[in-house]
Structures are given as structure tokens and as C-alpha cells.
Amino acid sequence: MCTVCGCSEGETRIEGHQHAHQHPNEQTHDYGAGPAHAHAPGLSQARMVQIEQDILGKNNEYAATNRRWFSERGILALNLVSSPGSGKTTLLTRTIQDLKSDLGLSVIEGDQQTTNDAERIRKTGVKALQVNTGKGCHLDGHMVGHALETLAPEDNSVLFIENVGNLVCPAAFDLGEAHKVVILSVTEGEDKPLKYPDMFHAADLMILNKIDLLPYLAFDTDECINYARRVNPGIKVLQVSATTGEGISSWYQWIKATHQLAQIGG
Amino acid sequence: MHEMSLCESVLKCLQESAKAQNFKQVKTVWLEIGALSGVEIEAMRFSFEVVVKDSLADGAKLEIIELPGQAWCMKCSETVTIEQRFDACPNCGSYQLQVTGGDEMKIKELEVE
Ligand SMILES: Nc1nc2c(ncn2[C@@H]2O[C@H](COP(=O)(O)OP(=O)(O)OP(=O)(O)O)[C@@H](O)[C@H]2O)c(=O)[nH]1
Ligand SMILES: [Zn+2]
Ligand SMILES: [Zn+2]
Ligand SMILES: [Zn+2]
Ligand SMILES: [Zn+2]
Questions:
Q1: CA B94, B105, A84, A244: dihedral to nearest 10 degrees?
Q2: In whole angstroms, what is the distance from residue A207 CA to residue A240 CA?
Q3: Which pairs count as long-range contacts for A41-50, CB under 8 Å and 24+ apart, including other chains?
Q4: What is the ipTM of this complex?
Q5: Contacts of B6 in chain A (CB under 8 A)
Q6: Three-state DSSP state, B80
Q7: What does the alpha-carbon distance between residue A213 and residue A211 come to, in Å, rounded to a whole number?
Q8: Comparing B40 with A207, which gets the higher pLDDT?
Q9: Which letter does DSSP use for residue A104 in this model?
Q10: Beta strands, E only, B44-104
Q11: Is B82 helix (H, G, I), strand (E, B) or coil?
Q12: Interface-testing mutation among A49, A138, A174, with chain B (most B C-beta atoms within 10 A)
């Protein structure tokens, strides 16, 4: 049990996890009890404590530790985010089949329950570790730090982190990844970038998946891309089908180019 | 429920602070939440009550200081107030806005015993 961070109090389960880890410097940011305040009652024993702490500060420390760990080893970490069922695992299994002879690959799978996705990935022959978040709806920096101890991705490899299917809070939780990649499937409607702007703002790449279904839908691709650019003028967009493989080579080129940048500390 | 895990982070900070500052009970927590932080204030209040049950902050009052969303409009050359991150400028309708404030999510101070 982890007595330092108390993370076993939650419902997170990490496959094969033994909890022998170093925590990043556990800083507290207390600045002592400040002068008595207007709202401090005069005679009781109550006192004011000025704390000035970012609510996500802890997560950001864990994420910073992960990021340092990746960069020391030349590992490219990509955080894949989307609504449930947009095709993350399908895209990953295909990507792994096609790239595993060129690149070292491994996967952290985040889901609320089941190890189904990790098993789908393992069938491709690469290392995968499932993190179940229980009631939690996103991975956080601390869970990923623990997962790394067990998974031990190789130096200079590419680590894919499949986040829990949720377009809201994974945007707020930095995992220490190099890039967030948002996967949107054409069956979800073109206005998703406007409905969930924080996620599309946080991502560097949008993969528009399931384009094989376009003939059967009234999905306006140009409008969707315009919406995405409105919330994030710099976002790159690739159109693919994870099942037919259409357009997928541009995704592989993006991974390889980004991986090379990670090697030179970019 | 994003707010649930934010409240868990808040509780963790309270527990650490209790050790460092030597207090046993938290009576009031002041949070600063920006309009662009993506936090639902009502969900936060609800989650807080649930999360601090049976802890050192059981029954503590949650005071939320809401901060407005602010952005710099390049066209108007001035700071404007926005409701959401990707709103147009309320003066000129331009989307050329640089967000300058309103994404705060902070614990400001505590009343403790
Ligand atoms: N037609 C079509 N179907 C696809 C494509 N990609 C994925 N699917 C289907 O979409 C469904 C969901 O795919 P998954 O890969 O499990 O989606 P996911 O994003 O991993 O789902 P969660 O992990 O539950 O969030 C499956 O039935 C896939 O076969 C595609 O490019 N075209
Ligand atoms: Zn831990
Ligand atoms: Zn999946
Ligand atoms: Zn969440
Ligand atoms: Zn303006």
C-alpha cells in the first residue's frame, strides 16, 4: 500500500502493480498562518491559514516528473483522448501492426472497468498495461507514473496512452505526454469541437476517424475542421479510417516525425 | 465527474496542510474558481460535501470566489470579459482573443481549529 500518496484509497487498479515507487518531491505550499482576517472570528480558537495552492498542483508535479522521465529516455508519449467508441483501440491495434517492426511501442490503457482493451493490444505482441480508474473518468499523472514502473517502456520507444473515453476532464489532467491527440469519429456530429472546446484546444492533432462511413452520413467535414480551428488555430487534422486503413499513412508519418523530434530533445 | 476528483485533490491538500500547520479541523475553505476553468460550481459544492464526509473537513463551509473570464482583444487593443473560452469579443465580434485570466482553480485560504 502506498502510504505516502494514499492512492490505494481510491478505486484505481493497475495491473501487476506493486507500489514500490519514488514520489516526486512532496512539496507543501503553506505560508504559515497569516495576519488575522476580516472573516476570522475573534474569540474562538479558529485561525486562518493562507494556503494559495493550485488544485491541480499535485497532478502537475507528477506530470512534470513523468515528462522529465520520458525526455531523459527519448520516449515519445502520446495521450489519445476521445468520446467512448471513437475508435482509439482499433486505431492503436492497426498502428501497432504496421509500425512495430520500425519502432519500439508500448501502451497504457485507461478504462473505468475491464482489461478488454489491454488484451486486444497484447494480441498484437507489444507490451500493454491496463489501468482501471473505477469511478474516475480520466487518467492522472500519478496513475501514469505508477504504470510506468510496471510497464517499463524501452528507451527511444513510443508510448501510447489510451485515456478513458471522455471529452471533458482528460483535457485538464496533464500526464506528462508530449502531445494530446484527439480522435473524433464522423458519426459523432461536426459540432463536437464547439461543444467540448477545452479538449480540442488542448490537443495538437485531431484524427477524424471512420471516414469510410461518410457516404452514409450527413457529416460536413469542412465545417467540422473549421470548428476545430476556431477553438485551436494551430491544430493539425488527419482524416483516416482505422478499419479500411484509408489515410492512415499520414498518421504514421506524423508519429515518425514527432518521434524523431523527441530523439533530439524537441 | 471531474469535480469529484478536484475535491479529492482539495482534501489531500487539506490533510497535508493539517500536518504542516498543526490543525485538526477545517471550518471553512475558500476556493478561487475562474469562469474559464471548466468547473461547475454546483457540482463542486455537491462533490465537496460527499468527499469530505468523515474527514477533517466534515461539514466545512465551502466559499467560492468566482473570477471572470478575461481576454485581450487584438483588434480593440483592450481587455474584455468573456463567458467562455472561445467566445467572440463582445465589442467587435473578433475571435482574435488571447485569454489572460479566468482559468484559476485555487485553494486560497482556510479557517481551521
Ligand atoms: N466503420 C468504422 N468503424 C470503426 C472505425 N474505427 C473503429 N470502428 C468501430 O467503432 C467501434 C468502437 O471502436 P473502439 O476501437 O473499441 O473504440 P474506443 O475509442 O477504443 O472505445 P473506448 O475504449 O470504449 O472509448 C468498434 O465497433 C470498431 O470496430 C472506422 O474507421 N470505421
Ligand atoms: Zn503512489
Ligand atoms: Zn478503447
Ligand atoms: Zn475525470
Ligand atoms: Zn474586440
A1: 50
A2: 7
A3: A44/B113, A45/B113, A46/B27, A46/B111, A46/B112, A46/B113, A47/B23, A47/B111, A47/B112, A47/B113, A48/B109, A48/B110, A48/B111, A48/B112, A49/B17, A49/B21, A49/B23, A49/B109, A49/B110, A49/B111, A49/B112, A50/B108, A50/B109
A4: 0.86
A5: 55-56
A6: strand
A7: 5
A8: A207
A9: -
A10: 61-67, 69-73, 78-82, 97-101
A11: strand
A12: A49
Burial (CB count within 10 angstroms: exposed 0-12, middle 13-18, buried 19+), residue A172: buried
What is the atom index within ligand 1 of the atom nearest the CA of A84? 25
- Measure CA A227 to chain center: 22
Contact call for residues A81 and A181 (beta carbons, < 8 A)? yes
- CB contact at 8 A, A165 and A109: no
CB contact under 8 A, B85 and A198: yes
Rounded to the nearest 10 degrees, the angle between the axes of helix A57-73 and helix A141-151 is: 30
- Which cell goes with B88? 467572440
Does B38 contact A45 at a Cβ distance shorter than 8 Å? no
Closest CA to B105 of A39, A63, A57: A57
Q: Give A7-21 pLDDT, tens digit per residue.
A: 544 567 888 765 444
Model confidence at A3, in pLDDT bands (50, 70, 90)? very low
- Provide the 8-state DSSP code for A193: H
Task: Look at chain B and count its residues.
Answer: 113
The reply to whether residue B5 touches residue A33, judged by beta carbons under 8 angstroms, is no
Is this model's pTM higher than 0.95 or not? no
Is A51 an interface residue toward B (CB < 8 Å)?
yes
The x, y and z cell numbers of residue B46, run together, are 455537491
CA A228 to chain centre: 19
> Which residues are CB-contacts of B109 (< 8 A; sequence separation ≥ 6)?
A34, A37, A48, A49, A50, A51, A52, B30
Reported confidence tier of residue B13, pLDDT bands at 50, 70, 90: very high
Residue type, B39: V
